[in-house]
Amino acid sequence: MLEIIRSGGWVMWPILLCSVLSLAIIVERFWSLRRRAVIPPNLTAQVWQWVKSNSDKRLDEKHLELLRKNSPMGQILAAGLANMHHDREMMKAGIEEIGNQVVHQLERYLNTLGTIAEIAPLLGLLGTVTGIISMLAAVGEGGLGNPTVLSSGLAEALITTAAGLTVAIPTFVFYRYFRGLVDSLVVAMEQEALKLIDVLHGDREANS
């Protein structure tokens, strides 16, 4: 493996850096975007039980802060509960404001992942160009009589191209996967938030 890296020239090092960074982001996003961590099951029902247990139907700041720290879904529900004694539109506005922040949190590092998917093949192409340049320079100095010179330049060109594509392809696949996952989580959180609004305003039963 080390010999292959050396054969690829200096461009292999930024490609390897991209691969390590990509892997770290993928592992971190898999952990952070677990559905149970983003949308804990029965959280909305638990919040409704908290509301019913308070005689004035108002959650104190201690409960709201606990809810905010619970999960991204908790942050959204806490925003709705903070405005629960206002009308429906005010509750929705509060939820949407916090919801935008939550979406930004869920999309953390995804732009970096997409950038890696774009620049990795470009780095591979750069390695191809530098390999061909070094090969032509060696040919200009020593002629075509030394096949080692030709093979080393050609190896540098092909290895970097292959390495760049090897990093870019799975990175792009995971980038698209996480984008779709975030979209599905956002839709689910919106549904839970609307359910809470309907329950608080008496438009639906808490267990429906």
From TrEMBL:
Residues 69-190 form the MotA/TolQ/ExbB proton channel domain. It comes from the Bacteria. It is found in: Cell membrane; Membrane. The chain crosses the membrane at residues 12-31, 116-137, 157-175. One of its GO terms (cellular component) is plasma membrane. InterPro entries: ExbB/TolQ_transport, MotA_ExbB_proton_chnl. The keyword Membrane applies. One of its GO terms (biological process) is protein import. Belongs to the exbB/tolQ family. This is Biopolymer transporter ExbB.
